[in-house]
Design goal:
Layout (H helix, E strand, L loop, with lengths): L1 H33 L2 H20 L4 H27 L6 H7 L4 H24 L3 H15 L3 H7 L5 H32 L3 H14 L5 H18 L4 H32 L2 H12 L2
Helix pairs in contact: 1-11, 1-12, 2-3, 2-11, 3-4, 3-5, 3-11, 5-6, 6-9, 8-9, 8-10, 8-11, 9-10, 10-11
Amino acid sequence: MKSRLGYVLMGELLSATFHLYRQALQATWRSLVRGWLTIVALVGFGLLFLGAARVAGPLGMAGGLVLGIVNAVLVGATLRLIEQALSATRTIHPSDVVESFGHYFWDIISVGFVLWLPMMALDMGVHANPYGQFLSSAVLLLLFVLLNPAPEVIYQGKHDSPLDVFKTSYEFVLEHWIEWFLPFVLLLLPVVLSPTGLREFFEISSGVGRGAGLGLIQFLLLPFAVVGSWLAYAGLDPDAQELLLLVLTPPAATAILLFRGHLFALLRGASRRQRLFARHADTGL
């Protein structure tokens, strides 16, 4: 009897979870229609960042500081546009792109600063310890998991310090880790199952974990890997793959950020039990 009840509850939970994803996907499509200009802006931001990286590269530590500032400006602007696309009832205009600059700048800078010293110590430990590379990968993977919702916490949550961002991200992951990571696990399947998939996944997770996911390159790197893997899995001509990869990566990156935003809001807005009750109310069962 208990076993049968457990199967029923599991089935109801799965049904409520897929209902949650359907809500997030529907909302993502509406936001993408309203915020299509975010795709164009993201391409422009990427080009600006690459230009800044080329200028700052020869400047050593000073160049790294300049690049960090540029990254914070562009990531803050991206998060602001995503925030507007999530909540606005009107189409995003070019003036919104201009207005987005400066938003969340200090949030991103302060989070990066708090992580900077531990990351420096971690990098030094890699050279001093024979198992340093393994320990470094393990730490960065842990940060990738625990700080994964940090971008959403910054533009949707209330926080007074970077430690609040870390704390909220950690608590969110502990409570909602199944619902939060399941769509991205499915999305990453072609990446992980490819011949070099695990190595590529660890490279992506290391980059995201190192900066709490607040890097413009990280916003584009994961969609780039996912789109490329799905295209390769489809067996398309290599030349066609390269063209489609360039065309599809910006909209895929924007769609992923929008989906994350809607999913984060839905998960924070209700517990599993509340979603079960809501699901029963929608189906009339």
